[in-house]
Amino acid sequence: MALRPWAVWAAGLAAYTVAVLHRSSIGVAGLDAQERFGVGGGALAVFAVLQLLVYAGLQIPVGLLLDRFGSLRLVLAGAAVMASGQVLMAFTDGMGGAILARVLVGAGDAMTFISVLRLVPHWFPAKRVPVLTQLTGLIGQLGQVLSAIPLAAVLAGAGWTTAFLGTAGLGVFVALVVLATLRDTPERRISGAPVSWQQLGTDLGSSWRHPGTRLGLWAHFTSQFTGTVFALMWGVPFLVAGQGLSRATAGVLLTVFVVTGMLAGPVLGMLTQRHPLRRSWLVLGIVAINMTAWAVVIAWPGRAPLPLLVALVIALGLGGPGSMIGFDFARSFNPPSRLGTATGVVNVGGFVASLVTIELIGLILDYRTGGGNDYHIDDFKVAMSVQFLVAAAGVAGILRTRLLTRRHVAAESAGLATSVEVKAS
Questions:
Q1: Three-state DSSP class for 41?
Q2: Euclidean distance between the first and final Cα of the chain, in Å?
Q3: Which pLDDT belongs to residue 420?
Q4: Is residue 102 a contact partner of residue 81, using CB atoms and an 8 Å limit?
Q5: Backbone dihedral region for residue 287 (phi beyond 0: left; psi -120 to 50: alpha; all else: beta)
Q6: pLDDT tens per residue across span 82-134
Q7: Which of 25, 295, 380, 421 has the smallest count of CB within 10 Å of its CB?
Q8: Any long-range contacts for 392-395 (C-beta under 8 Å, 24+ apart)?
Q9: By C-alpha distance, which of 254, 248, 122 is closest to 192?
Q10: Is the whole-model pTM more than 0.85?
Q11: Which helix (H) or strand (E) holds 12?
């Protein structure tokens, strides 16, 4: 019996890992996509931007559906939608089909992560939740390793169609494992109680109005975006076309990025558990490390040396674990009945920041190269600098909502104390 929670979690984790593979596949295939579809950097960014736009736009609706229908149904639906998107990508040779394929991947991806995350508090004691939440997000990033190494190798060898059909087949296989293994709760309940649209709106409004939920959103927004931009779209072009590295070396650096997150995640999970009043400082510290690393690489004359690029990907690898702290804010300040909704609200943050940044970088590159893909390192330096503006907006959001959250908690505590005094009298 004690093994059942781990089996359920492992099945959900496998589904999320494959979702990350689907999500990041276009980044690894970015240069191949430009050649296949005959497009520049701005048009290429449309793939990732639409995918992330669909993902972010569906987070709140999916969160509401998750509280109603449970994790199993949504994970299976997400797997089917993503597999269909990858099959379409395998055979299309036009931009229209490719865009639709990435929209399907974004829609299926939107159903997966928060559904898996919701399993943790149902199957494990509360003291384990922060660490297991970190591990869920971070082990799932092995999907980026699958895209950076095996998928890249298949692309270079067997070609485009075989590579994307292979990812679709892997998604179907994992969906069958999920169907056989995953259950929403130990009581085998597969859905929540029926609720009205009015109640759904009330839950969403209550989640949003609590400043602690918005603090989680801004924490996720600020710490996640630069690593997502790097891994999902512009990392490989930056390293290969900008820094002059081979595809193999770029793949190794992406693997270092993922491994860093996996090693840092449990540490940050324990720090979050032991020092809940210092969570926002952890996020701000990670953001400072990320932006400092980018500043040094951008300021370096010409191409940066390999050790500095290794330091950059290590710094960026901290962003994933940092963004998971945002979900701990959602858990802390919302009741279980609306946890899916609150988690969806938080998860919007980092992906909105990522899609805005991806598109801005693509537009800047197009402006500097006249729409071509003959990139110079200086083009990337200018384009990547837009990340500092996005980070500044996120830090401002954290500082403001942190202050509001502290005031809200103090007011709640004062109200509780007054209620106790009234009852005692």
A1: helix
A2: 49
A3: 37
A4: no
A5: alpha
A6: 999 999 988 888 888 888 888 899 899 989 988 998 888 888 887 788 778 87
A7: 421
A8: 394/218, 394/221, 394/222, 394/223, 394/225, 394/287, 394/353, 395/222, 395/284, 395/287
A9: 122
A10: no
A11: helix 4-28
